[in-house]
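Reply to dn_fold:

You asked what the input looked like. This is it:
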Amino acid sequence: MSKKTKVILLIFGVLLLDQVVKFIIKTNMYYHQQIPILGQDWAFIHFVENNGMAFGLSLGEEYGKLALTTFRIITVIVLGFFIRQLIDRKERFGLIISLSLIFAGAMGNIIDSIFYGVIFNESGYIPAEIATFMPAEGGYSKLFHGKVVDMFYFPMIEWNWPEWMPLIGGNDFQFFRPVFNIADSSICIGMFILLIFYRDFFSGNIKGDKKEEKVSVEAQAE
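and this is what came back:
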C-alpha cells in the first residue's frame, strides 16, 4: 500500500468516525444532556455546540463565524497541497501522518460549520426538542454558519482554590473543563506528534541533505 493511499485512508477514517459520532449525538440527545461513560463520574458524553474554534472557544458573532470558517477552508487547502508535496518528496512518514491528522480534524469541524446549520434544526433543552436531520421547515441557520458539535467531557479533577490565594482564591478549578470532539482530538494528536518529534522530523532531513551533498562531492572528486 502506497503512502498516499495510507494518508487518504487515515483522513477518510477520521472524518467518517467524527461525522458518524456527531450525527448520532445531534439526532439522539437534547442540548446539555449528559451520559456517564461506563458509569464513571469523571467521564461523560455531554452534548454541546459551539460557534467557533476547538474545545468550545469562540470568535465573535455572525461575521466572526464567517471569517473563521473562511480562514479554516483556506488553511485546509494550503495544508492539503503541502501534504501532497511532502508525499511526492518522500519526506518522513511521521511528519506526513501528523499533518494529515491536523488536516482531517480541521476538515471535520469545517463540515459542521458549513453544513450543519442547513441540514439540522435547532437542538433544545428537553427530550422533545432533539434535532432532526433534513427537517421540512429547514435548518437552524444558513450555509457557513453551522455550529460545531462537541460531546466528550472529562472533568477528572475538581477543587476550590484556597481563599488566601490572590486573584483566584475561592474560585473553582476543573481539569479537564473543555468539551471536545473527535476532530479536536485528531488536531491535538497531530500537534503533539509534531512537538515531540520536531527535531527528528526536520533536523533529520537537514542531516540527510548534507550527507547526500557530501556523497555527491566525493563522487565528483573521484
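The chain has a mean pLDDT of 87.
Hope that clears it up.
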